[in-house]
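Apologies for my clumsy wording, but could you write out the amino acids of a protein and the tokens describing how it folds?
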Amino acid sequence: MRATTIGFIAAGLLAGLAAAPARAECVRSIVNKSSLTALVRRDGGPWVTVLPHRSQAIRFTEPGSVEFALVCGRPGYGSPDQGAVYRDSIGYSAIIDRCYYEIGNGFFEDQLGPGSSIGTKDTAPLTVNVPRQGDVVIGTRLDGLCPAVFGDTLRSRY
């Protein structure tokens, strides 16, 4: 009788663990190779600044979306994404140990694999899921949209 009770308790605990939803824990990176300042926020949270030629880690724990805004110079006070030259929002999946941006529409995904050239979304200047799934590289495609910023180096006295 005692062994049977312990067996039922153990079976109940195992069934409870198996029924718990799988949770993802992925740390991926956002690499800014452009001369623009990148602002990134996950699921409507606060903006995080990724300065030019720097990178920032991002943690995925459940599916959601990431917003990107690229601005010239440093972001101002108030709404930091004001005056962005580029904006986009990309959904992502986070399941167990797989975290990736969802850029396809599922057309022939079973046959060709996720991210195939048929039915994908143009994310330029962002390169998503490269070099690892869940990584983002911000390229230099929009660098020409910002006027040259001259700091204190060019000053003259009259």
Observations:
- Residues 115-119, 150-156 have pLDDT under 50 and may be disordered.
